[in-house]
Amino acid sequence: MTFKALLATKAGEKISTAIVDLNERDLMPGDVTVAVEYSTVNYKDAMAVTGRGSVIRTFPLIPGIDFAGIVEASSHSGFAVGDRVLANGWGLSQTHHGGYSQKARVNGDWLVKIPDVFSTKDAMAIGTAGYTAMLSVLALEHGGITPDRGDILVTGANGGAGSVAIALLSKLGYRVIASTGRPEEANYLHALGAAEIIDRRTLSEPGQPIASEQWAGAIDSVGSHTLANVLAQTKYRGVVAAFGLAQGADLPASVLPFILRNVTLAGIDSVNAPQDMRLQAWSRLARDLDMDKLARTTQEVGLADVPRVATEIFEGRIRGRTVVDVNQ
Questions:
Q1: 111 phi and psi angles, rounded to 5 deg
Q2: Which of 50, 81, 128, 304 has its CA 20 to 30 A from that of 267?
Q3: For the chain, what is the domain count?
């Protein structure tokens, strides 16, 4: 039996993708085989598919850093045929075939059983972006940032992780400030729960090493000058959770926010997070995510649409989450 997959190949420095027919002998080693139903297009996926970042490390490779589907074969003690599972990160789309495929074979230790309240489509509407947003919220809570401490800033608010972060934080009782470069999306952000919207340009240029206190915490997907300015304006004993580099991987900041205001910078890694953190994050998503708000963030596309969506992400034309029906 053959199945369809989006395969990335490299000729010289150029990466290209095409939908191809494969069979199970083309899959990589693993003790669980999954009939994939949905994947997503995250910022990291856009980098992989367009070749803008060195995400894919071996070619040819099926991209897609996450997937959800049904177990169809397993020699892993934790999973049985028929289980609904998801995978985020690990080596997917880097050194191991990823989710842009109708079948996947992976190490069972990479999988999480999908909470009963979610369908496989719901799990990918959340996807790596939403799971990362939840890890960020957990980091704020771990640092003692409760709603009574003050506002929470979310940068890259229109993106997938930013959108889910706003929905989560607002339901948990936080007052959310959304930073965006697209003021025309104000109604969308307010509907997710943002109380205030600011122009990202107020944060994206070089700023002071320390500035007036504005927020008790922040979730940042941008990096570079934006993250430096976020830190400079964080209140005493605030926490900033950082996981992205849309503006850049540099951090042109000073130590002043850390030593004068006792600010904590919490790095968020979704790729290699231990299993207990993954289970906690997905358990909390099942409890704390407003599914109506999630639906507002989500569009669905087919496998052939992935390259187009990846390009549109960099053009700033995609908001929220993009779910990929790999059978469409």
A1: -95, 155
A2: 50
A3: 2
